[in-house]
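Researcher: Next entry: Mab-21-like HhH/H2TH-like domain-containing protein (Dendroctonus ponderosae).
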Amino acid sequence: MFSRKEKVQKSSKCRKMEQLILPNAKLKFCVDQLQNLNFLFNNRLDPSEAAEGLSPEKSILLAKSVTERLVQRLLCGAAQIDPRFSSKYLINTRIDQNDYTATHLEYVIRLDNLSTPTIYEDYERSTFEVLETDKDCPAGYARIRLNGSTFKQFEEFINSFGFLRRDRIQARLVELLAQAAGSDKPTSPLHVDESTMCGIPGKIMDPATLYHVLSIPASQHVYYGPGGNVPRFPDTRDFRLAIVDEPNGIKLKVEFLSPALADISIKVTILVAIGIDSWPATSDFPSRIPLGHSDCLLYYEAALTGMYLVGYGVHSSAWQIRLPAAEFTLLNHYGANSVVRTILDVLYQILKDINSYRKMRKPISYKILNRYMLFTLLLEELEENSTTPFYDMALWSPMYLSTLVLKLLDKAINRLSSEFQPNYFFKKANLLVNPGHLCDEDFTIEANNIKGYMVKLFDESLMSNIGNDGFSTLINSQESEMNLLYKWKGLVENMAPPSGTRGRRLCFAGSKNRREIVHTQYTARQLEYIGLVLHSMLKVKQHILHPHYNTGFKSLYSPEEELEMQPLEDVIYILVSLLDQAKEQYLSLPNTDNKKISAKIKSRYSDCLAKLIEVIRKDREVFSKNSPDLYDDITLVKVILKWLYKAMDQSKKYFAPILRPYLNTVFTASYHVSYHIEFIKERAKTDEIESMGAFCLLVNTGTITPAQGLIDSINKNWLWARDMLRMVEQNTLRLVFIQTRGKVYRHILSLPSYSKDNDFETTGSKTWNDKARKIRSIKRKSTLPGRNYFSSLLHDEATISNRNTPQHETLKSNSPLTIILRKKYRMGQHRCAGDLLRAMTTMQKLSVFQEATSTLPKEDQSKLLDIIDNIHTAKAKRSLTKKWSSTLPHSSKICPSRELVQKYTPKEESAGIRISPEQTRKNKKPILRMESLLGTSRAARLKEDNNVFLLQDNFRIQCLVNKSELLYN
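Model: Predicted structure:
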């Protein structure tokens, strides 16, 4: 049936595909079948096939846009009736935001009067306690006990035990929404107090973006308002509206009376939530992630995005803990056309097919399999199916699309049969909770539905695609991409030190500089990356939720005492955390070499750790009083690595078995990821936010007009200003500035007609120069598959909107804060921390990229080579400019003083208070900053020690009590 002549893999150096055996579905797919399924999945997701269906898609987009504006009107009306339910932002929690055909909208309403952080710095902070370990609460839920003035404000929603009832809160909001639907106000967003409500498109955000926005002072915010001279909200009389109060949220069903949208019905789910700037203590994420995991830094960054207590479920006073910002951060680490997002799109399409088949069968089975369960399975696979950064890239390449999809479906069968699917963040919480009307047979039927669909896929994969041009193109693109990955592997590994010296002793004896030998294997980039991971890990420890959440953290020591502390305890705190993580990772392995060894390690671990700490305390060479070296992050990482390797070298029976594999993975992961360290640091920059904040402050104080500030910012090459100018070029733009509560300023920006006719070439902006136009002309559609790394480089993603996008959607997705904070997410095509083309550009190894594209079609190959030539040309111009500027004399005649005077300098204004050099020299003691690794360690350690009774002066770290069970006599 299949041709033996055509081989899927031609290169013997590359890893070949293998057959797939699925134990739960009892199916076996050969390599040719898997490739046929790759072709089948790509065709189903190819947007070119839906070219004829643009009109219904446009109608759905318009219907969703109108519905969203209607929801805004209802929520603003409800807040005007009862200010306790006001929400400054509308949170969109739909995971698949790129699915334009979906007719279901999901929102979270953040109760600003109860949430933290507050929307304004001068707001009175709510006082309440969050209890996660309550006996009556199921896993993944918590109770809220209000105190003080907050108790009096929400007294009518509190039960006899003092807990806030989520059912009463939700019932009250339903009542307010119904009253707002019957009212004529507000009729326009211009009549809404934007300092406390959300009536404009720019304040509709995803949860991760909102988390970062709340950390920026409100006076430094600017949003896009609705278009038109007199914008209006949709009139409720133009809809058939149903509002239902259900345990799983407030349900709205919107039908349109307009003939153009009469066939469309939009369903809306609204969840009432309280935002908290902490991480749940009952979650083992991300503490279960080892330091050597490929995505370790990503997981710790996701855990710094806060949590929501959501009104969901049947318990009256139990609030469900949800982490939508963390989920959004994990998902948007990958681009829309990446393999990870493609897998999710395929799974969602399969779920739609199963639900459609369900309606045709009798008796009709219950819907148990859902979208969130599939998303959870994907997150589990990303965490568990990880070895090294390179093999993660290879095993999650487009060649293995069908393999991964089938594995996840097979795992879903097992979870449905066992009736238990753990929550990704709370392993004890079951996503398949039986609502009461289901029996064991219902779960079996749902598992059989997946089996039946997989059998259907098996039959479809038997069809031969030999001779199909599209199939040949797909195979060729897969081979080219794998060739690129293995060339990258060879390039990186050829520069790595010998592996034999990393897993064994590193010659601590017999050298004069034995202290420095440990970290000589590590490059400066590796040490910097490990420092970033440790910094994020310690920040997560600071954000762990404690029972008395709002009492605030009070240090055991005064600021002077904290400064006088030696960094010894902070280093020990980090070492104990890493050693405990290495121990837990070793003991969790299913196939340990010897169970007796594991038992001995478990029993003797605390004693060995106590001896190690005692040795560290006696090391006067490194931990001298007020040692300035340890205030440098890289130096501190060197010291930590030294003691980890020293522990492995001195304790061969107990520390060596657990530290050897742990340190090997740390070295491998840090080495591969370190080549993307510049890209990681670039995404963490805040200069764009700071410059826009300075712009907002000057506009709010009347120092400059928005037009003046925009032109000045464009001349300073700020990207957010260029994006704003592009929006002004399209249409008149309304800007909304919020200085503080009750102070809202609206400005309208537009360009003269002659500028529009001349394509704005006379405005002095260099946004659209010849080079940019040339690059945009190169990025046209290729003949490669749409979901491919090379094709992603050719597609033009710079457009702001298209003909099918309503104006409301354009203003929402291109609002300044949203655009800037979106760049914090990688949105890459591979499973790595950066981008291969950018890394090779930095390493000056673009010839390797050119070799990998040699097997592509000539047309696509020429386009990619043009992009590489443009990179070389731009680099040569920058180098020439630098050389030319260095030859110019530094004279005031050439650079007149009047040109040095600028209207504002964002970097200087946002830099804070400066310390004079004279004052710095007077300070004898080093300043411990929270941004440093040592400062972060001290803050996390002191927070854990807040409720610990100190028996002796040297007993200062709580983790030794909780984790290692050490007591000093």
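Model: Note for the record: The two ends are 76 Å apart (CA to CA).
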